[in-house]
């Protein structure tokens, strides 16, 4: 019975063992999958922490160390691009990943949600970095060829990150590119070790697809940027270079585009319409024209400011110690030396430089817009051929893709570019208006300070205007009195101002060469401003050669000034009318020949000299202003008083002072106080014919 019972119990034990083995075999795969899942999650978090640490080293240590070196040939912005933005996003993303560890059962769902939340930010920052990564590698390669720069870079790496063993900046620069491409792989590994029945499985699938789409968008953006970089460069080609580029293919392509454009304008073939792009381009062209107009106006404004600063009234020597004239001089000096130079400097820094930078920024998009039109014409031509033949060549397919890439890039980038350009343009205009307001306030403040020091500074407005009227009336009366005094001065033959010997000889020579009817007198000072123009003083005698210049202009006359010949304004000349006198003076050369002159010069002093017609110049010197003598060597003058100039300079040869005779008194007076005026004919007689 015992043996039978033992035989019966043995099958039950065997069944139990088989059941336990089957359960163990079922549990082991689940444990392995769960373990692999945990390891994949741990790998995601730990590698993200290591990545953030390395980016922090790159930004805070390596870049900062290179900035302190201030190497002019090192383009830090081109090397590190928008690493700061990547670091900012990655730090926040890492905090979110670490926070999921506390939610054990919902960790996978939280990780999936976190990727969905950060996908747009990641795409924004990483596509900019990846698009400029090739440029950064080119910079690194160029720095390798420069021993000095390469030595500085290696010294920086050894000083900041010696534990990494990095021998080049590319060790760190490639990390963001590798990281963004690894996110779909890490998520896929977690997904592989997650049962399909798990609640987080659909969310993980969505996260994998989202990060894969992010990488696809980054690659597409990078391709668009490469196309834009190829076509948006403004080429400055010479005529020879342009001819060198011509070949049968380029001529055929340009001819096809031109004929297609003509057919568009003639309405033979319809244009490809893109409302979104057309609106964006219209706004862009508006920005371009606005920047061009503002740049032209600012340049004109600067030109006017330069012309305004040319006169320097504060440098004029005023023989006035104090009073409004000196206050105005101080005010003008403050404006010219302080206010306007500072304003011009601020205008250049806050308006001109940003405006020029904005204008340079527009060149690239302008080239791209122009190239898009060319590629659109090619695209329409290829599309038409494709509809007829059913297929296109590889090159034609590439041309179509180029147009689509340029169009997609412009549609995506022009809105942001237009918005940024308009904001910058608005800031420039605001800066210009602010500068104008500050200038007006500064000038007004200084003017008020000067006004307070004047006697009428605090005078009521009615009293001020009454004072102005009285002052003007008094000045007018003084001016009328001076004019009347000046007009009533009647010169007599005795007080006429004779010419000095040198002037006599010059007038004699002019009369002998050109005749007395060709002589003219300068009525006011002439300063030659053009080639062949003469600079003459008031009262000089010249002879007319031609009453027209080389261009037929009758307002400029060609004259002989007794040696130099040139052009002078016709309005500053008046006919010179000599007065006949019985005193020996300038003898008319027509009355005696050169032989007779030589004979007369050797005649005895006692021989009587024949009475001949002589000519005295028809002008005299009078005092234009009153002058009070301040020393025994000077003589006083009254306005309008005739004087005789003895020497047009002082003992040192300075022409600022002249030696004159005034009513028998001799002394020096300022030359600028003397005026040469025509002699009026005495009443009751006239020149003999």
Automatic annotation (TrEMBL):
Q: Name one GO cellular component term.
A: cytoplasm
According to the UniProt record, where is the region Disordered?
580-609
- PANTHER family named in the record: NUCLEAR FUSION PROTEIN FUS2, RHO GUANINE NUCLEOTIDE EXCHANGE FACTOR 37
**SUPFAM superfamilies, alphabetically?**
BAR/IMD domain-like, DBL homology domain (DH-domain), SH3-domain
Keywords on record: Guanine-nucleotide releasing factor, SH3 domain
Q: Which ranges carry the SH3 domain?
A: 515-578, 616-679
Question: Which Gene3D superfamilies does the UniProt entry name for this protein?
Answer: Arfaptin homology (AH) domain/BAR domain (1.20.1270.60), Dbl homology (DH) domain (1.20.900.10), SH3 Domains (2.30.30.40)
Residue limits of the BAR domain?
A: 262-460
Q: Name one GO molecular function term.
A: guanyl-nucleotide exchange factor activity
Domain of life, per lineage = Eukaryota
Name the UniProt record assigns to this protein: Rho guanine nucleotide exchange factor 37
């Amino acid at each position: 019975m015992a043996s039978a019972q033992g035989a019966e119990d043995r099958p039950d034990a065997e069944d139990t063992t088989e059941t336990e083995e089957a359960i163990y075999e079922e549990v082991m795969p689940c444990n392995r999958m769960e373990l692999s899942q945990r390891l994949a999650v741990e790998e995601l978090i730990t590698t993200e922490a290591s990545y953030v640490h390395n980016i922090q080293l790159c930004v805070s240590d390596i870049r900062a160390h290179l900035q302190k070196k201030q190497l002019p040939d090192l383009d830090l912005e081109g090397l590190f691009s928008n690493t700061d933005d990547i670091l900012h996003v990655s730090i926040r993303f890492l905090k979110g990943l670490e926070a999921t560890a506390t939610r054990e059962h919902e960790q996978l769902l939280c990780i999936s949600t976190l990727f969905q939340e950060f996908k747009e930010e990641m795409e924004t920052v990483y596509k900019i970095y990846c698009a400029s990564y090739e440029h950064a590698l080119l910079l690194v390669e160029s720095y390798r060829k420069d021993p000095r720069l390469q030595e500085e870079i290696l010294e920086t790496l050894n000083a900041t990150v010696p534990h990494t063993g990095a021998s080049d900046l590319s060790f760190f620069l490639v990390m963001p590119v590798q990281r963004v491409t690894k996110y779909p792989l890490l998520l896929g590994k977690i997904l592989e070790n997650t049962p399909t029945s798990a609640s987080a499985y659909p969310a993980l699938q969505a996260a994998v697809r989202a990060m894969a789409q992010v990488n696809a968008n980054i690659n597409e953006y990078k391709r668009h940027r490469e196309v834009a970089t190829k076509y948006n460069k403004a080429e400055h080609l010479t005529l020879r270079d342009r001819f060198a580029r011509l070949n049968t293919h380029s001529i055929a392509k340009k001819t096809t585009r031109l004929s297609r454009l003509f057919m568009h304008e003639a309405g033979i073939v319809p244009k490809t319409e893109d409302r979104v792009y057309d609106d964006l381009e219209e706004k862009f062209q508006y920005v371009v024209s606005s920047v061009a107009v503002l740049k032209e106006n600012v340049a004109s404004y600067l030109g006017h400011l330069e012309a305004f600063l040319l006169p320097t009234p504060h440098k004029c020597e005023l023989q006035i110690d104090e009073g409004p004239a000196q206050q105005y001089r101080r005010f003008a000096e403050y404006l010219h030396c302080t206010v306007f130079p500072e304003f011009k400097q601020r205008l250049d820094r806050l308006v001109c430089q940003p405006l020029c930078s904005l204008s340079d920024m527009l060149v690239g998009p302008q080239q791209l817009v122009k190239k898009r039109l060319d590629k659109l014409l090619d695209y329409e031509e290829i599309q038409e051929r494709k509809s007829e033949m059913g297929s296109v060549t590889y090159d034609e397919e590439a041309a179509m893709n180029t147009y689509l890439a340029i169009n997609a890039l412009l549609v995506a980038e022009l809105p942001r570019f237009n918005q940024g350009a308009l904001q910058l343009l608005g800031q420039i205009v605001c800066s210009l208006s602010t500068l104008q307001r500050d200038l007006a306030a500064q000038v007004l403040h200084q003017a008020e300070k000067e006004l307070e020091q004047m006697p009428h500074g605090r005078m009521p407005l009615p009293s001020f205007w009454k004072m102005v009227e009285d002052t003007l009336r008094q000045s007018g009366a003084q001016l009328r009195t001076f004019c009347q005094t000046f007009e009533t001065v009647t010169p007599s033959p005795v007080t006429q101002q004779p010419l000095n010997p040198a002037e006599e000889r010059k007038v004699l020579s002019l009369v002998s060469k050109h005749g007395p009817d060709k002589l003219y007198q300068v009525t006011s000072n002439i300063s030659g401003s053009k080639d062949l123009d003469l600079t003459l003083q008031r009262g000089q005698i010249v002879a007319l050669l031609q009453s027209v210049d080389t261009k037929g202009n009758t307002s400029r006359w060609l004259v002989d000034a007794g040696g130099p010949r040139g052009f002078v304004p016709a309005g500053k000349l008046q006919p010179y009318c000599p007065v006949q006198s019985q005193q020996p003076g300038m003898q008319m050369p027509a009355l005696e020949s050169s032989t007779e002159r030589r004979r007369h010069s050797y005649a005895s002093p006692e021989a009587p000299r024949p009475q001949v017609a002589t000519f005295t110049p028809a002008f005299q010197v009078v005092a234009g202003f009153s002058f009070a003598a301040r020393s025994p060597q000077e003589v006083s003058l009254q306005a309008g008083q005739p004087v005789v100039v003895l020497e047009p300079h002082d003992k040192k040869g300075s022409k600022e002072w002249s030696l004159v005779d005034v009513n028998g008194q001799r002394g020096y007076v300022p030359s600028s106080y003397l005026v040469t005026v025509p002699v009026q004919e005495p009443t009751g007689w006239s020149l003999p014919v």
